[in-house]
Amino acid sequence: MNLEQRKHWNANHKILTGILSRPEEYPNAIALFLEQHRWLYASGREPSVQPTYEDAILSGLLEQTFRAYPVRTSVSQNSIAWHLWHCARIEDLTMNVLISGQEQLLHSEDYAGKLQTRFIHTGNGMDEGEIAELSSSISIDALSDYRQAVAERTRSIIPALCPAQLKDKVSPERIRQISAQGAVKASEQWLLDYWGGKTLAGLVLMPATRHNFLHLNKAMHVKLKLQKSSTRST
Question: What is the pTM of this model?
Fold first, then answer.
């Protein structure tokens, strides 16, 4: 995903923000959401489509680059592994538990075991030792599968909503479920308050789209810093 494509994605996100809660624009909003979301995850089972932002990050990515931590960049010191895991965790929780009332994929599909990391929360508030541990131990293949599963689930959840639901506030009971599951660290309760103040449309516009985009930008910065010679054409 080059600079022009990123600018195009940002421009479309502004359009999506303007039309998502307008019932008369709902079909167009859903189509635009699905297109925006597709850019944020590896093409996976759709190898014929245009390469996505995650494809660009993963192309030629060395394992040592994927796991490197800390990394001193202008935007983040966290590893690519952490960024890809963190935004998938956030999306799994917000789309499955908060929007659809389902069990998060981390548990329903046993990714908690497959990922080979003891951390089941969002990653907010982790200390340096914890981030280093996750970065060195997480399974690359399982993380790829987890991200693909999260993406596919989201793309089934959002089109199934009716326009009126997008204006609903997040259910306090579902916020309590997330807290009870240990999905947010005790020190990071602000995140639950933040989600609790959102409408469902707000969750679509941030965790499911903008939040992913921001973390992919940071992951690409890490890749470019550590693999300058091999990524100049990306």
Answer: 0.94
